[in-house]
Design goal:
The complex is a heterodimer. By secondary structure, chain A is α+β, with helices and mostly antiparallel strands. Helices cover 15% and strands 44% of the residues of chain A. Chain B has 6 helices and 9 strands, in the order βαβββαβαβααβαββ.
């Protein structure tokens, strides 16, 4: 069976746990986008969900870990290649 | 005659600013509020080589753009009040994010000293920092490595503070530190002291 590599895009809240994903879009206002950028979440950055118990998410981005509320996390559109 | 210098501890949350503040000031501290705000203000003092240092422990902030009252306090103190020296405490295991604030403080042209804290954690994880290169890349800003929770680097920090306030503009003085597991020494190449 041939392995296909397809790009998948979804909100961070729906990304597979532990999967390395790339931030492709921030669906947020200017202040929120600025705040997130200060924490390292800029378009194109690689990140990973480390923990998700249904509430806030713990993510690993650059060399640190940050916690994001679910509402904010759902504003982050991420993509990754299925088959990775 | 004793001089008094005002020093502010700035940096991301959880970098060890308060640990360093306590180590420097001991019992000589005062807790209150910043005027007009519910943000806690911790200030204190210590004397080193006949010089009195007033230290303010600023609230943790990720940048000088303030999104909350405590970040406003930190920003205003650095930009408006302008202490004699800003001591930027960084978590060396998290440099990329921590350096964002550093870059902004550099842009304000405030006299600056970096403390790269959590050296013990870095060593455990196998990180090594090229202090000279980092200092160069940041325009010659002096750097003191530390592991404040273990008390390492506090003595070097006091000495460095004293030195910087005797010399000219701190940002012109590149500082090296001797590499080595327990060797948290910083020295000034200009006067070869310490």
């Amino acid at each position: 069976m041939m392995k296909s590599h397809n790009p998948s895009i979804c909100p961070l809240t729906m990304a597979p746990l532990g999967q390395d994903v790339r931030l492709c879009q921030l669906c947020a206002g200017r202040q929120m986008a600025h705040r997130l950028a200060e924490l390292g979440l800029t378009p194109g950055v690689c990140l990973r969900v480390v923990q998700d118990a249904g509430g806030p998410l713990l993510i690993s981005v650059r060399d640190s870990r940050i916690a994001l509320g679910r509402g904010i996390a759902s504003k982050l559109q991420v993509e990754w290649m299925t088959g990775d | 005659m004793t001089d008094t210098f005002r020093v502010a501890l700035a940096g991301n949350p959880n970098t060890g600013k308060s640990t360093i503040f306590n180590a420097l000031t001991g019992a000589n501290q005062h807790v209150g509020n910043w005027p007009g705000k519910t943000v806690v203000r911790r200030s204190g003092w210590f004397v080193h080589r006949d010089t009195t240092f007033e230290v303010v422990d600023l609230p943790g902030t990720y940048s000088l753009s303030a999104f909350s009252p405590d970040e406003e306090v930190a920003r205003d103190y650095i930009v408006r009040t302008q202490p004699d020296l800003v001591v930027n405490v960084l978590d060396v295991t998290n440099l990329e994010r921590n350096l964002y604030l550093t870059a902004q403080i550099l842009e304000t042209n405030a006299p600056l000293l970096l403390v790269l804290n959590m050296q013990d954690l870095a060593l455990r994880r196998g990180y090594r920092v090229d202090y000279e290169k980092l200092s160069q890349l940041l325009g010659g800003v002096p750097i003191v490595p530390a592991a404040a929770a273990k008390g390492d680097g506090i003595g070097a920090l006091r000495d460095m503070l004293w030195h910087l306030l005797q010399h000219v503009v701190p940002n012109e003085t590149p500082i090296n530190s001797l590499p080595g597991e327990n060797d948290h020494v910083a020295f000034c190449p200009h006067c070869r002291a310490l």
